[in-house]
Automatic annotation (TrEMBL):
Residues 8-96 form the Dinitrogenase iron-molybdenum cofactor biosynthesis domain. InterPro entries: Di-Nase_FeMo-co_biosynth, DiNase_FeMo-co_biosyn_sf, MTH1175_dom. It comes from the Bacteria. This is ATPases involved in chromosome partitioning.
Length: 118
């Protein structure tokens, strides 16, 4: 299984589409076997869900994400977990231990460029 966490620095990004990048985690038997950072290739409508699906991602974890992006991730077979906060590695550990549940948070603020989740 592959998990991506949207990050800004070492923290879970609170605005998915405009994150600095993604921490990719390869998981086997509930343990992280490998992890690496991938810079955000850019915020374009509908691009990131397909891009991450092509990278083999099964789960995306973030703070906030727009409704359109959530729908597109689900259409690409990727589980969406929103509402995560704090350090990305700690969020990953919480996910693996079954203690990180999605709040189904939908980002509707538009203080960033463009629209949330598009």
């Amino acid at each position: 299984m592959k998990v991506a966490i949207a990050v800004d620095g070492k923290s879970v990004s609170q605005h998915f589409g405009h994150c600095e990048g993604f921490n990719f985690y390869e998981v086997e038997n509930s343990e992280v076997k490998n992890s690496h950072f991938v810079p955000n290739p850019g915020h374009r409508p509908g691009f990131l869900p397909k891009y991450l699906a092509e990278k083999g991602i099964n789960v995306i974890i973030t703070g906030g994400m727009g409704n359109t992006a959530q729908v597109l991730f689900k259409q690409n077979g990727i589980e969406v977990i929103t509402g995560a906060t704090g350090e990305a590695d700690l969020a990953m550990n919480s996910y693996l231990s079954g203690n990180l549940e999605s709040t189904d948070e939908v980002c509707e603020r538009h203080e960033h460029h463009g629209e949330c989740g598009e």
